[in-house]
Amino acid sequence: MRKIVLPIEGMHCVNCAQTIEKALHDLKGVTASVSFASEEAVIEYDPQETTPAQIVKTIQDAGYDVKKKTAEASITDMHCAACAVNISHALSNTEGILKANVNFASEKAYIEYVPVLEEKDIINTIKNAGYTAVIGAREEETEEAKFRAARRKMYLAWAFTIPIMAWMLPHMILGRHIPSMEVMNTGMLLLAAPVLFYAGKDTYVSALRSVMHGSANMDVLILMGTSASYVTGFLAFLTPLESFAGVSGMIMAFHLTGRYVEAKAKGTASQAIKKLLELGAKTATVVRNGEEQEIPIEEVETRDIMVVRPGEKIPTDGVVVEGESAVDESMATGESLPVTKREGDEVIGASVNQMGLLKVRATKVGKDTFLSQVIRMVKEAQGSKVPIQRFADRVTSYFVPTVVVLAVISFVLWMSVPDVLREIGVRASQVLPWVNPGLGVYTLAVFATVAVLVIACPCALGLATPTSIMVSTGLGAQNGILIRSGEAMQVLQDIAVIVFDKTGTITKGSPEVTDIVGGDEVLQVAASVEAGSEHPLGKALVEKARQMSIALKDIVDFSAVSGKGVVATIGKKKALVGNKKLMEDHDIDVSKFQADSDRLESEGKTSMIVALEKEAIGVVALADTLKDDSIQAIAAIKSMGIETAMLTGDNRRTADAIAKQVGIDRVLAEVLPDQKVSEIMRLQKEVGTVAMVGDGINDAPALAQADVGFAIGTGTDIAIESSDVTLVQGDLTGVIRALKLSKATFRNIKENLFWAFGYNVIAIPIAMLGLLHPVIAEIAMATSSITVVSNANRLKKADIQADYE
User: Is 501 an annotated catalytic residue?
Assistant: First the structure.
């Protein structure tokens, strides 16, 4: 399965998102999640069953469009029409390119493609066909252009609506038509027409398109409400019915104002992606042929040596090959303190070099960089749906038809029992100046029906969850917390126990040799055998031998025994370094060193027995220091009512000693790597929802088994793909931030849903009784959506910080 994220155009409410989702699910080999708030579809598809072009066509057939990009490539080394045909064929066969027209005469290629591709991919396709291209791409319609269009429609609507309101004022206050009823009605019809049919054209088109595809969105309600109001302007010439033609223009003007303000608020909610995109460097200074050259960031290749001066951004992920400096990595970790980088250290692209000159070898470019992965992960999270949203989606799918039925019921009630409803109006008119029970029955019935149609607000329901997810995932990314999906964020609320891997999670993962029992020969044998190991304990032994100037011996037949130790041959003697289980497997008596081993383990150290030729010759002990925030973080997690556990391959005595130091409740010791998954499953059965915190590489199966998996690490080597939550900074404070982010987000979501449901439950019955003027109803509807989005934007960094930060 492959995954693409497509930006969708033409959605006007959550029903539109559901229509697209349904259409995509009907495609073979496709699963999709469509978010109205982020205007994106996160799609997984089987390339054997379908293609991006078919997916785009399905979206278009449903009445919507994908925000595509167009590129104009200049190709100067074509020599004949056949060259153009070759390039056209190569481009057309590239997945993600929808249309390619190569013109030999103008030496240009005109390409239409979806954002699953980058400009660099198109250039490489042309290059692989044997030609050279220079490309300049632009989006068909930028967010800024859409925002300007919404503002323009709003201004145009009000240019005609303000005269309508000024003309209606004497009639509302004095009850007089100026100069006459006929002239005033005609004027209202003429002034409202451009508001409805020009400024509001997109609303009407969206409504009609929705109906044609067998669904109904919010625009359908606006269409019905404004059309019914406008038609009364003509009927007023022929019947006693009051004209609401002017009101129709006012409804549309307030509707377009609401759309404009909502777009502005949604833009604020999606700032995280824009900020992340702005972080990247635009150019890089690289050393080629012995000379420094400044080139566009798109042209940087792996293994390029980049020169980064103080104050400059590091262009892309890499390794320092020369120099030493303090680097500001706050863009990735959220921490303002700079990190010292020297030769051999990894650096993150877009971090800022603060002091010395660095030379950095590029290791990742383009889509593979840390920043690109973060942006992709945030986009996917923002496009995902949380379980709580499914209920809201079910409600909104029936919402518009239900409102239409209620509007019809309202009209029928007013026509059937007008005296009962008029009596309510008489009492209400004493406090509500717009209620006029003296109007005719037909007028009051239309008045109530239109108010019901325009006050109902499915958008508030549709925006309640995704806007909060958009803001929170972006906030998390800016503070070193990368959350893969909204579902993982919701599960975080219900965590009963958090299981921590010991090495590299609670401890720094850099053990040091602390004790040697048996003399230098013991260290020489242990270090010689471990020289073939990649394990941190083995590396520590080799480093200690180097420090003590102990020469290592050559080994053969090296093998690692998972969870037990290592075995090798020195000369003709078999050497073993490991725990008691390894010694038992080889029938080696360790009683001579049992007391030493027990004593060292009770001090929280890892003891390793060294044996040579079937005889134990000594013990080496290593200790791994705790991370600076481990004790505080564990205490803070426990204060949130969450149980803590530690999972380790260490023996029981060592594990208990470390757990006691940090205050962990439960210890799962002597667990072999292949037993970690079963331990997580056992805990899930025993206590419920389990989170696992590990390095994301060695613990990948256990992280996947846990209800929520945290991958913790530093630099560009974090396995972002292996976990539900990635903690960039590499300390346990990130776990607290993630937990607090989850609680703050879903508190926000519940507030939004309470407001959205409560508003509709209260507002619609009031409108049915004729107690709301249609214009006031439309203002209330627009305010409802804006309130929900604005509430989501209240989430701030202070909401997620640990108390001790």
Answer: yes
